[in-house]
Amino acid sequence: MPHCKICKTDFASFIDFGPMPIANAFLPSGEDDGYRFSMQVGFCPECYMVQLVEQPEPERMFHENYAYFSSISTVMQDHFEQFGSDVRGKLQGKDPFVVEVGSNDGIMLRHFADAGIRHLGIEPSSNVAEAARQRGVNTLCAFFDQDVGRRIRKEYGPVDAVIAANVFCHIPTMPAVIEGFAEMLSDEGVVVFEDPYLGDIVNKTSFDQIYDEHVFYYSVLSVSEMFSRHGFELVDVEPQDVHGGSMRYTLVRKGCRQPSSAVARYRKLERDLKLDVSATYGSFGSKVEAIGRDLTAQLTKFKAEGKRVAGYGATSKSTTVIHSFGLTPDLVEYISDTTPSKHDTLSPGGRIPVVPYERFQADPPDVALLFAWNHAKEIMAKEEAFTRAGGQWLLYVPEVRLLP
Ligand code: SAH
Ligand code: TYD
């Protein structure tokens, strides 16, 4: 019986998405390695962690050709400048030292580098790690684990803040990683991290947040359970308006600081939302099936009417949508994306061509299927001309709908 990666309890329920490819494996045509893993989500009734039952090996997902460059979105650039500045405002003492886990192309740490603050990014994907180094960000190309934590403490001394975004949700060995934090942090050191928030995923039925890289779907309840097993206490939570709804968590060693009232408030909200109840995930699965039926019906109708549909944003999330519902180039002609490394590739498994953004401008479809719905504000503003010319947007979160 598969069990929880945090507390080893047997799962209470599952959602089964079937076989899935690597979400970010945008490969040139003919290069599909045929790799698939069985994507099932389990709910642990003991520590409330929602998680993938099985996850591909980290090296299959994070490597020298990692496709995701954080700085591709200007909204995310602003967001991480603010995140960095919030953390800097809280640093105490002389000559503080900050470690970021999953620092990618240096989108956040570059602001620490520019301010002359001692810092180290830990980033296993060598292509994005190199982009960070080019910007003056000290970067160690490695997967963070307990041993790396120990080495950092030995080489640099105590760490004042561990910061991270959209990466703890990627790491199946979080218990060992937290032990690593316990070894390298100073007595008053803080861990500040954010990830897509389970409350938003459930509220919006944003099922496409579920893909290979995201092994954990965190809530205030599960984060405080997970860290408290290693001597840490959750002392603050702050909702964030990115990645379709995220939560920022602040943790310190137990007894260091009084938790803010927001922690208790969110615990109650989560119980009211029944995030701690197995049945919630059963009805989530049914809602996903309904979205699938509506979306394929809408796309089939467009096809019958002779309307052209193109995807907007070759997101990791799109792989879940394309694969769960069997979308083909027949229904979605191409996917436009601004990331150079994704150009002239095929979507993983679905084999829909990914093309440069210029194609969308030169050859706009009748309908844009917004795979990058989490960037809707930025994209809709940029694409005013498309909308004005009669172009429509097809969204599927929280339900299938057409705009305008
Ligand atoms: N923090 C950035 C990047 C998120 S993508 C942002 O929010 O935009 C997650 C990043 O974490 C990837 O660059 C990936 O290579 C890295 N990563 C994955 N597993 C890791 C681990 N065990 N330790 C450190 N980084 C890891
Ligand atoms: P994101 O939603 O952050 O990714 P994921 O699901 O992989 O976490 O990725 C946004 C993708 O959309 C990325 O490949 C870049 C692309 N994109 C555009 O093509 N145009 C845009 O204006 C924006 C904001 C993103």
Structural write-up:
By secondary structure, the protein is an alpha/beta fold. It contains 14 helices and 18 strands. Strands 6-5-4-7-8-11-10 form a seven-stranded mixed sheet. Helix 5 (146-156) packs parallel to helix 6 (174-184). The chain starts with 12 loop residues before the first strand and ends with a strand. S-adenosyl-L-homocysteine (SAH) binds at residues 58, 62, 66, 68, 70, 101-102, 104, 107, 122-125, 128, 143-144, 165-167, 170-171.
Summarize the structure.
35% of the residues lie in helices and 23% in strands.
Structural class: alpha/beta
Helix content range of the residues, please? 25-40%
What's the overall geometry?
globular
- Rg measurement, Å: 21 Å
Low-pLDDT segments, ≥5 res: none
- As laid out across the biggest beta sheet, the strand order is 6-5-4-7-8-11-10
List how many beta strands DSSP finds. Answer: 18
The overall pLDDT average reads 95
Helix segment tally: 14
What is the percentage of strand-forming residues? Answer: 15-25%
Could you tell me how far the N terminus lies from the C terminus, measured between alpha carbons in angstroms? Answer: 48 Å
Q: Give every kind of bound small molecule, once each.
A: S-adenosyl-L-homocysteine, thymidine-5'-diphosphate
Biggest beta sheet summary: 7 strands, mixed
